Each structure stands twice: as structure tokens, then as C-alpha cells.
Amino acid sequence: MISMGISLWSAPSLVKASGRPRIPSKSRQQKSYEIRPVTEREFEQWDEFVRQSPQGTLFHSTPWLNASNIPFRLYACFRGEEWRGGFAAGVTGPRAGGHPLFTPYMGLLLPKSDARYVTTLSTNKGIATEFARFLKTEFDSMEFRLPPEIVDLQPFIWADYRAGIRYTYRLDVSDLKAVLANMDKSRRNAFSSARRDGIAIDDSALFSEVIRISEKILARQGPVTDLCRAAFRYNEALEQIGRCRGFIARRESGEPLAAIWIVWDDRRMYGLVSAYEEHSASNNAVSLAIWRAIEFAALELGLPEFDFAGSMIPGVEQFVRKFGGTLLPTFTLNAHKAPTLPQRVARKVVRIATGTH
To answer: What predicted TM-score, i.e. pTM, was given to this entire model?
Structure first.
């Protein structure tokens, strides 16, 4: 059993406001809600709320966001002195909100509730309504992908946000025998084939080697230099708190064939990078590496879930599907403010001047 390092979040406690002045909400529906930015000295309280919120993930937490190396904003929603909601946003441009690299989930967080469903739903709608209004005063352009636990987008749709849908697979790893029994036979055969070929998993590999193997895959997602630098920043930050690990599948000779990089919080593990060497001509090695990560999550960390962190490319979706996870929708929110008349005029002048009109 490895040490999980320093926990991102402390033991549960009721999160209170700091007593500093707050920006009053203008909503007519929920006048008692107030939203204001979270200050750096309140980051510990923020991370505690993330830990308590059913929607909270590693990607909402300040260790992850600090490592992203882009500006970010955290907003808290209060009712009286009680912290009732939150919203995490990366700042991707002038008055533009979005995601840092390698960040599958961000956005809205709601409070843990033991109340009746109708009561919880009404409370959450009130909080979401406040954020739908407030965020448009902070950003002119926004695009956020929410965790699967956020299913009610009505307050945002009513406020003229556009909703989209993507998918991920989550695997219940609490019973590994059941996982093996429920996955596609071809995936189990891939494990067996890899082992017969003498492939073994190195779970103490250097991160630099993980990234070297993954560079071609990363290059398909964007500027590879930026992605590699971001990955090293995240890995350095998360290693300090025991929240990441790289795995490499090797031949008996030590030759690397495939690599994966995983991160985790208190709820689940997330597979963020997986790749195999093209010359290996087989995905058996990466299949075995992912299985080793699943074993690591269940047996050594005691985590109940493995999240494949997005499965929208047809070939990737088919590969991931065969592990037997549950297909879950993840909703996106988009809002873009129309340019003002002076802005439109200025843009037209630029197009005329540059001959691009």
C-alpha cells in the first residue's frame, strides 16, 4: 500500500464565509444568495467545499488550478454565512472563460444535501440561476464542460446559454472480478496476449519517458510543446501531494511499448494520457497498462471508480467501451456576448485596412 501523501482537503466541516464584504446578488428569484470571488487566503475553504460537493473533482481544486499556469477565478455563492455553491473558471483570454490544458471538468459545484429530492432540486436551481446571471457580468465569452453529476442546465438555458453534450466512461472498480467478467472478451484476451508476449508493467517509470512515448498522441490535440510543459507542471505539483502516477508497458528487454498517466482525488482515478509506440503494432500493451492502473486504483488507493475522462473520438470510444464502463453524458455550457456597435465598426475598419473584407 503506497502513501497517498498530503490530502488535498481536510476533514469535513461546515464552511463559513470569512465575514468580508460580498457582492450582493441581483436575482429576483433568490434574493438571499450572494456571489463573490474567492480570495487566495480562502483557498483552503474552497478546497474543503470541493471535497464536500458531489460534483467536486481534482480539476476544481487549487493544487490543480495553480499548476495550470493560466489565470483562474473561483466564485463562491453564499446564503447568509453558509457557503452554498461554487464555480471554477479558467481565464483563457480577455473576458473569456474556459479550461486549462488537460482539464476535463470545471464549472459549477453544488452543496451536499440530505434533503428530499424536490427540496435539493429547488435549492440547486436557485444557486445555478445566480451563477447564470453573475457569470455574464464577468465574461463576454465562456465555454465550460461540467462533470457528469451536473444534470440540470435549465437555469443556464433560461439565461440564453447554449448547452452541448459530450460523453465519458466511468468504471466501477470496487469488485475487480466483476470488472473482468463484465468487460468485452477481446479486452481480457488483450491482457492475456500481452502477458504471453512477456510484457510487464513498470509502475515507477520516469515521467519524462511517459511523455516521450505520448508525444505523437499529444501532437494531435494541440501544440505539443505547450502540452508537454503543462503535463510536467501538473505532474510536479501532484507528485508532491501523492496524486499522480505514470505506468509503462515494457518488453522483457526493457523496451517501452505503451504508457499511461493517471491522476486522482478522493473519489476516483482519471486516465488523462494513454499512448503506445506505433512500431509495436498492437494496443495490447496499453490495454495491460490501463488494467494495471485500474488495479492500482482499487487495491492500493481504495478508490471506487476509474474515469476515462472523455470518449468522443470513434476509435478511442470503441477501445474504451470494451473495458465495460458506464457511458455517461457530460454537458457543456457556452455563452458569447454579441459585439457592440463600436466593436463591429472597429473590426470592419481593420478588415478594410488589411484587405480582408
So the answer is: 0.84
